[in-house]
Amino acid sequence: MEPSPTREELKAISARVDQLIALCQRLAEENRSLRQTQEAMVGERANLLAKNEQARSRVEAMIARLKSLEQNP
User: Fold this and answer.
1) What pLDDT does 73 receive?
2) Is the C-alpha dihedral spanning 31, 36, 39, 44 positive or negative?
3) Helix (H/G/I), strand (E/B), else coil: 73
4) 25 and 17 in contact (C-beta within 8 Å)?
């Protein structure tokens, strides 16, 4: 049979548990923040991809018009 923990051991365990709770809370907040940042970046990426597609379409249209002008002087 193991001896019961002393008052000092219980205090140390309690302090460690408090530290772990604080760490879990900090990590949960950091995780929340990182998820928000990721969502914002995904949205920004989608916006940039759409703008890139629009620009590509405009450039292709300009190239087609220029080729048309070359063929019909």
Assistant:
1) 67
2) negative
3) coil
4) no
pTM, full prediction = 0.65
Contact 37, 29 (CB under 8 A): no
Which CA distances in Å does 30 have to 8, 33, 42, 69?
A: 33, 5, 18, 58
Domains of the chain: which residue ranges?
A: 7-73
Nearest to 20 by CA among 31, 9, 12, 33: 12
In the numeric block, which tokens belong to residue 5? 């923990």
| Cα radius of gyration (the chain) | 31
